Amino acid sequence: MILQSKLAILADAAKYDASCASSGAAPRDSVGGRGMGSTEGMGICHSYAPDGRCISLLKILLTNFCQYDCLYCVNRVSSNVPRARFTVQEVVQLTLDFYRRNCIEGLFLSSGIIQSPDYTMEQVVEVARVLREEHDFRGYIHLKTIPDASPELMERAGRHADRLSINVELPTQEGLAALAPQKDGAAITRSMARMAVHIEEARQARKAQAATKVVSMPASARARRAPAPHFAPGGQSTQMIVGADATDDRTILATSAGLYGVHRLRRVYYSAFSPIPDAARALPLIAPPTVREHRLYQDDWLMRYYGFAHGEIVPAGQGGMLALDMDPKLAWAIAHRERFPVNLNTAPRELLLRVPGFGVQTVDRLLAARRVRRLRHADLARLHVPLKKVLPFVEAADYRPGRALDAADLAARLAPPPAQRSLID
C-alpha cells in the first residue's frame, strides 16, 4: 500500500481521539539552526481535515489493526474496515515533512493493539525516540499509551513525549466490562497513578533545580550540573465516551472529579458516542445530542476554574442529567436564587465567579478595579459582559436588581432561544 493510502486510512481512523490539544508543553524552538520544530506555535499554519475540522497536529494511528473487540470502536477486530499499518520510519518521515511545510506543530500518535501491548507500545515509543534523538525534533509530541504495557516502556514514553494519555474509555467499570471486556479497568487506574508519580517527581526535581540557581555558585559548577529529568511536562489526559451506555451526567462528572483529584490529570475529554457500521445490539442506534457533550465540557470548566463541586452542578430532580436548553452555570444560579444578588464591591472572588455571564478574566478585572474605586453599572458595560444575563444577579453602587430574581419567567427570559432548524432538519 502506498504511503498516501495509508495516511488516508489511519488519519481517518484517529478522528475519534479528542485528546489532542497541544497545551502544556515545555518551550522549545530551533532558533540558531539547532534541531527542527517548536512548541511555541508561532508561524505555524493549520491544516484542515476533509470534514472541515482545523487541526494543527498530525493525528494518526500507527495501525488500525487491533486484537481487541471493544463494541464501540470502529477499529475493533471484528469490524469490516480497510486496514493499514505504518512503519516507524514512515511516521517519522511524515511528521518531518508536514512540519517542513508548516502544516503542523507536532504529532499525536495512537495505535490499535497488535501482537501484544508491550510490542505496540515499543513501536509507539520508538517513533518518539527517533524524532527526538536522531532528528532533534523539538515540536510537540503526544503519545496515547497502552495501560497493559510495562512500566519501563511507559517511563521511556514520558522521557520523549510532551503529554501522555490513557483512555478510561467509559465512565464506569460496569460499562467497561459490558462493552470492552478485554480491557482491564484496574490496569488503566494503575498506569495513570504510575504516570502521575513520575510527572510529580520530575516537576519537583525541576522546581528544586530552579531554586538552587538563586544560590551563588561558580559558573563552572552550574555548567556541570545535570538538567532535571524530563517526564511529560504537559501532564496526562484521558478521554471517555458519552452516550454509549446508560451512565448519567452526574456519574460522568463524579468520575472526572476523581481523575482530576487523584491522578491530577490535565484534561478529561468527552466524546459523544458515534454509531458505527455493523454495531452490536448493546449499543444505541443513534448518537446522543451533541449539546450534551458541550454541556459536559462546560461543567468540566466549572469544576476546574470556577470552584464548583461536581455534586452541586447536576440538579437532583433531573434524573442525574444536565439541562440541554440552558448552560449549567445559569441553571445553577436560577436554582439557587437565595445566593444572589452578589455585591460587586464587597463579594469575594468565589461568589463573583458564580455570577452567570462572568468569566475568570472579568472577575479578576473587577477585583482590580474595585481596589481604587467603587464599581457602578457603567463599569459592567465597559467590560462587554452580557448585561441581560448578569444584571439580575448583581448589585453595584448605583444599581439594584429589585425583584428581578423573583420573576417566574426568569429562566425563560435568560435562556438562549432554540437554534434555528434548517430545511433539511
List the helices and strands and how they pair.
Blueprint: H1 3-13, E1 47-48, E2 54-55, E3 57-61, H2 88-100, E4 106-110, H3 117-134, E5 140-144, H4 151-160, E6 163-165, H5 173-179, H6 185-212, H7 219-224, E7 236-242, H8 249-263, E8 267-272, H9 290-305, H10 310-313, H11 328-335, E9 342-343, H12 349-352, H13 360-369, H14 377-382, H15 387-390, E10 394-395, H16 410-414
Parallel strand pairs: 3-4, 4-5, 5-6, 6-7, 7-8, 9-10
Antiparallel strand pairs: 1-2
How would you explain this protein's 3D organization?
The strands form three sheets. Strands 3-4-5-6-7-8 form a six-stranded parallel sheet. Strands 1-2 form a two-stranded antiparallel sheet. Strands 9-10 form a two-stranded parallel sheet. The chain is globular and about 70 Å long. The chain has helices at 3-13, 88-100, 117-134, 151-160, 173-179, 185-212, 219-224, 249-263, 290-305, 310-313, 328-335, 349-352, 360-369, 377-382, 387-390, 410-414, and strands at residues 47-48, 54-55, 57-61, 106-110, 140-144, 163-165, 236-242, 267-272, 342-343, 394-395. The chain is an alpha/beta fold and 425 residues long. The model is unreliable at 41-45 and 421-425 (pLDDT under 50). It has 16 helices and ten strands. Helix 4 crosses helix 6 and helix 8 packs parallel to helix 9 (290-305).
